[in-house]
Amino acid sequence: MHEIRLTTAETTSAAVIQQAIDTLAETGGRVVLPALDVTLDRGLELRSNVELAGQGRTTILRKARGRVYPLSGFHNYGMLDAPLMFTDGLEPGMTVAIRDDQHGGFFETFARITWVDGTWVGLDTGLHSDYSAEHQPVLVTSFPLIYGLDVENVAIRDLTLDGNRAEQPAGIGACRGAAVYFLGSHAIEVSNVDESGFLGEGLGFQMSSRVTIRDCRFNNNAGNGFHPGAGSTAALFERCTAEGNGAAGFFFCVRANHITVRECTFTDNVACGISVGTRDSFNRIERCRIDGNAGSGILFRSTDRPVEVEAVHVTGCTIGGNASATGHGQIDVRGDAHDLIFEHNQITGIAGFERAGIYVAPTAERVWLKDNAIHDCFPAVVGDAACMAQERPGFACGIEAAQPQHFRHLR
Predict the structure, then answer these.
(1) For the whole model, what pTM was predicted?
(2) Contact status, residue 110 vs residue 172, Cβ threshold 8 Å
(3) Distance CA 143, CA 127 (A)
(4) Beta strands of 124-230 (E only): which ranges?
(5) Three-class HEC string of 370-404
(6) Where are the domains of the chain?
(7) What is the pLDDT of residues 224-283, one digit of tens each?
(8) What CA–CA distances, in Å, run from 238 to 52, 214, 385, 404?
(9) How many CA atoms lie within 13 A of 336 on its CB side?
(10) CA distance 236 to 146
(11) What b/e readout covers 250-261, taking b as 16+ CB neighbours within 10 angstroms?
(12) Nearest to 154 by CA among 68, 246, 44
């Protein structure tokens, strides 16, 4: 494998690290960072077949202070530039987001600046929306610290990431970014990464597959800790932690399928520990600790057919002390969810709170409960007998069950 080992003296900026990554774009290989504390004025973009590694807790990548640049007027979808009121401090190579107060999600634009000419900047990506003056559009220097777009066979290892949340006037939305972010990418590995304090989500990926996240900690972010989203398929999260995040610890987004979450910890998050929603099916949650979250330990969001949740297996988990602010119970099943298995879990409530151990909405079907030890919950189970399965549902789930036909919706 081709390898570039940077010294502390060499690694003075994000641009230097990016140059090393780009050097390996043709051959593939590994960029190894030394022990350092460097401030990033731009995101580090991975190339296919390239690994970025550090020395663990002594290799710190810190986001620079953010700035906001108002657009000077209307600009339309697809354009590779944007008009600003001023451009002080912007330069080619920096990564930015463009957003307004009306749209969100994939209508936000994430791009790299290609040129600066007066009060105009060039972008390497066409604008993802029309941006009208009445909606207060802005360009913000908010970006993933490390990201990959349409890449494969990439890895991130042994790094510490600081989102520098206190010095960020504006963040980046979950669909277009996170502290670590991938879009349309495949065969990804992230291991031993410590991240905290990002004004947005910790780790997110969209329309990606064959993702492995091991021994990582994504804590104290403004959004969710982990967010597999938009059709992502075949992922493994193992021995990871999401603590103190401003939304859920773990958020399954639309059609996040065949995912295994194993021996992970989700605690003290502002929303629920784990959130499961639209078409998030054939997933396995096993031997996780989920406690102290203000919302339910595991929430199955209210989804209606034909995009309901189905075929999720929760086993061997310790779930307790959740739902202090919201939620019907430690496990909260809503909407038209069906074919769910809950077995061999330890479930504990909060003294003085009348919350169920397991709540099953009347619209749910074929929910299987077996050998769950439920304590200090009132009542232990809420759910009509008609909602409960008479036989254990039969389905294969998790990353281990992913088959070629399960990837047909991804390019």
Answers:
(1) 0.96
(2) yes
(3) 16
(4) 138-140, 146-149, 152-162, 180-183, 186-196, 203-206, 209-214, 217-219, 226-229
(5) ECCEEECCCCCEECCHHHECCCCCCCCCCHHHCCH
(6) 68-140, 224-387
(7) 999 999 999 999 999 999 999 999 999 999 999 999 999 999 999 999 999 999 999 999
(8) 20, 5, 35, 23
(9) 8
(10) 19
(11) bbbbebbbbbbb
(12) 44
Tell me the pairing of strands 329-333 and 298-300: parallel
Q: How far apart are CA 189 and CA 212, in angstroms?
A: 5
User: Is the separation of the CB atoms in 182 and 206 below 8 Å?
Assistant: yes
Other CB atoms within a 10 A radius of the CB of residue 354 amount to 10
CA distances from 226 to 11, 95, 145, 257 (A): 29, 22, 15, 15
pLDDT in tens, 63-81: 999 999 999 988 999 999 9
Nearest to 219 by CA among 248, 197, 190, 251: 197
Residue in the structure block whose two tokens are 């999401």: 242
Could you tell me how many residues make up the chain? 411
Enter the CATH code of domain 224-387: 2.160.20.10
Read off the tokens for 393. Answer: 């549902």
Q: How many angstroms separate the Cα of 118 from the Cα of each of 84, 87, 123, 126, 131? A: 9, 7, 14, 20, 20
